[in-house]
Amino acid sequence: MLQLHGLGNGLSTAPLVTNGRTRSITAENLAGEKGQGGKAASNLGTARKGRPCIDLKQGETVTLAHIQGAGVLQHFWITVTDKTGAKGHQAQYVLRDLVLRMYWDDEETPSVEVPLGDFFCNGFARRSNVNSLPISVNPTGGMNCYFAMPFRTSAKITIENQHAYDIGGFFYTFNYTLVDELPDNAAYFHAQWRRERFTEMGKDYTILDNVKGAGQYVGTYLAWAALERNWWGEGEMKFYMDGDDEWPTICGTGTEDYVGGAWCFSNLKTNEPESYSTPYLGYTYYKETTEIDPWSGHQVPMHGMYRWHLPDPIRFESDLKVMIQQIGHDHSRLFERSDDVSSVAYWYQMEPHADFPALLPVQQRWPR
């Protein structure tokens, strides 16, 4: 059974004893070795919180975890500052400047390549709390992931510091189980980030494309900066699968509908958007136009939201493309609009995967 190989993480599997071996990687036990945790020394002596974190040098790529053998990554936790002490834009966007990558079974190109904040549904390089089943972000900036990530021969997780400065105090823990074997149908976890600073009028935004093979799509995160007046979220979510050409098999009814909200997320008393965060659906970040300082002027309205297809995965057999429209409403009619949209697609598929589009340079990832 699937849960007997370390893939189950629900209450129903808690009583089931298996032959899996639990391990954990931290800055004090870099290889997750048995009986080697917590040995580093501090001013209090040996094994007294000697190395709880690492520093990231500017331009450096650090391997956080390199695991050999078959297993399942079950949970990881990361926290880091969201801005460095220096002034100016270059210091403000740590969560977009750090790039998280994951490689399964010694593959050459990553199956996960996402700015750190966006992976944890913290787009715009700004912290926000998230209370969902696979992603949880807690005060202050404690970022947790519970997606099960199986691998058959190895797993490697890296972080690249593309920030303008060194970053001190990068904390992390990776919890995983080593197993003798995995089921043949255990697919590999993937996540991909994209952005269009100005979406093309009348053309749907591409969240994911060029996925070949069998798998299932399990989630979307959207960081949507509204560049025009009036309501921005009438666009429909589309899933093209298994040979779909002009028309998708699945087409939704609107952007806020896709993430489980309704009527512009509006609180009927205040007429302002109202945030929420649930196990599978959330609208967790809303920032209206606000003057922040004389040099920066005003920000555009920013909206962060997620949808997890865990009870209802989008299953595909040969190919998948995911898109969303940019359509607004001005209280009288629909209209085509152009906005600044960033996204993360989360899915499982059997390897090999197609190469991802080149990640945008660091300054082109910064929010407005």
UniProtKB/TrEMBL annotation:
GO terms for molecular function: hydrolase activity. Gene3D superfamilies: 2.60.120.1390. Pfam families: DUF2961. Keywords: Hydrolase. This is Glycoside hydrolase family 172 protein. The lineage of its organism: Bacteria, Bacillati, Bacillota, Bacilli, Bacillales.
